[in-house]
Amino acid sequence: MPNMSKAVQYASPRNGFGEALVTLGETNAKVVALTADVAESVRLTAFAERFPERFFDVGVAEQNLMGVAAGLAVEGFIPFCAAYAAFNPGRNWDQLRVSVCYNNANVKIVGTHAGLSVGADGATHQALEDIALTRVLPNLTVLSPADIFETRAATLAAAAHDGPVYLRLSRENEPIIFDSKCSFTIGKARLLQKGTDVTVVVTGSMLAPAMIAVERAKSNGVSAELLHCPTIKPLDEAALLTSIRKTGAVVTVEDAQAVAGLGGAVAELVTTKQPVLVWRIGVRDSFGASGAPKDLYRSFHISEKDITAAIMTAAVKKR
Amino acid sequence: MTVYSIEQRAQNIRGAVIKMLLAAGSGHPAGSLGLADVFAALYFRILDHKPTKPDWPDRDRLIVSNGHIVPLWYATLAEAGYFPKSRLVTLRQAGSALEGHPHRGSVPGIENTAGPLGQGASLAVGQALALRLNKSAKKIYVVLSDGEHQEGQTWEAYMAAAKYRLSNLTFIIDRNNIQIDGFTEDVMPLEPLRAKIEAFGWHVLEVDGHNVKGIIDACAEAQAIYEKPVAIIAHTIPGKGVDFMEFDPKWHGLAPSSGEAQRALRQLHTLQGRISAEHE
């Protein structure tokens, strides 16, 4: 596990998506891109300039965005439709459900600006519900990478996967954790730190704070095992159960509602396969707010301090 | 096939629809009967298609956005030879592929999944863009209800089709003036529908939706419009062919009883009593 207390570099995961899409455009003539008036924000400008005939901006019309993508997919193209997660899949969930998932259309839905990481734009633009909304849909794969390199690899993996994929990206510049050789296997968790007392399961941009929390817990005498789940659906049940059977307690961490997301998925798993106590770090049944993401993580109790406290509590209270 | 033969096919299809809804005990007769002439014209003249090869890449595509009229779609496909007519009476039954709303690929010839209104238009825009990227000269036809023009998504699709000048795209709008809660102009007025669609940058034609030759001619005219997408407003009578169903919003989503079905079939076989049926 990289040492997060040392100085680290930061980059926007969205850049990893944009770069990967240009690579895909060069290697696969079937890859097309769509957006709804946010081309630069979702990093589609380079693709649009390079492949103008394969880029479609449908304007501020997210329902149509999803439907047009589905139409391109049923004719054999591999569309990436990208917009803010609050609107895509927030605004167009019915179109995602019927035109894409029920059809099993090979659409890649990219929701950027997910979670409190949006920051200053505030609650309307902070998708805290998108994991819950996508996780319940049959045929849909849900990916939530942590940094620029993992996002690049996840984008390539999504294109290679035959079937609809939701790719969840944060807005912030995130600490660089992986490197340019990062590979991505859909459905596989990454064991980043071995431990014996508590299993910490994390996804997306919360990986860096979770790594810091695991280090702090270690200095307080608690050995936490860290599993990063860049694939939320299908969940890597084998990896989770192996770890949980060893530690006997779980802390889940996500920049999303604390219900029905990654924590919900883990809770569903353990109740049937390995009952243990689960502490879920996430936003507690409230909307977000404007502010710097770091400040929001503290005020909504999903910061490294909160994660550390949950790990310490779990180590004591587990049965 | 002659226009007269196509009209005969439409009557056969209407009869099949009544039998299907009777067997299912639920479904949507008004739109299904109202669009029978349009569907017969499409499958027996307008569309370039192969019933024995539903996935033929060079086929014209028909997208049905108002999925609730799927009994008509199934009956037409069976009439055209896509699958045996004997399967029709399994409509809406557990274990049957003939779902209550269409699902792509579930039955040969069903091109799209539909149910929530307004989604077919966007899907078709994507397919029209795809055919253009593939340099295909084939056409995308979309059947839409008038009621689903109350969905915002439909108009999002109109805008996109105009932006991309999708001349390979033709909408056929079932202007039957009814929806579940009553007449469209009472529930949520659509008029002036033609002017609205023209203002969105489309070429608009209007046709009597029960005049098979008129429908064929309008689709031919649509092919000649190469700078814009075309919408054909087909004025239809909901429940067409069964007098007690015609014009009555009650029959939007109500299956006939067995007595009503018998009356309906007698009317369809005799063209509402104007001719005597062979079996009587």
Provide structural commentary.
The complex is a heterodimer of chains A (319) and B (280). Chain A contains eleven helices and 14 strands. With 319 residues, chain A is an alpha/beta fold. Chain A has two domains: 10-175, Thiamin diphosphate (ThDP)-binding fold, Pyr/PP domains (Rossmann fold); 190-314, Rossmann fold, CATH 3.40.50.920. Chain A has a seven-stranded mixed β-sheet with strand order 3-2-4-5-7-6-12, sandwiched between helices. In chain A, strands 9-11-10-13-14 form a five-stranded mixed β-sheet, sandwiched between helices. In chain A, strands 1-8 form a two-stranded antiparallel ribbon. The mean pLDDT of chain A is 97. In chain B, the strands form two sheets. Chain B has a five-stranded parallel β-sheet, sandwiched between helices. A two-stranded antiparallel ribbon of chain B has the order 4-5.
Short description:
The complex is a heterodimer of chains A (about 325) and B (about 280). With about 325 residues, chain A is an alpha/beta fold.
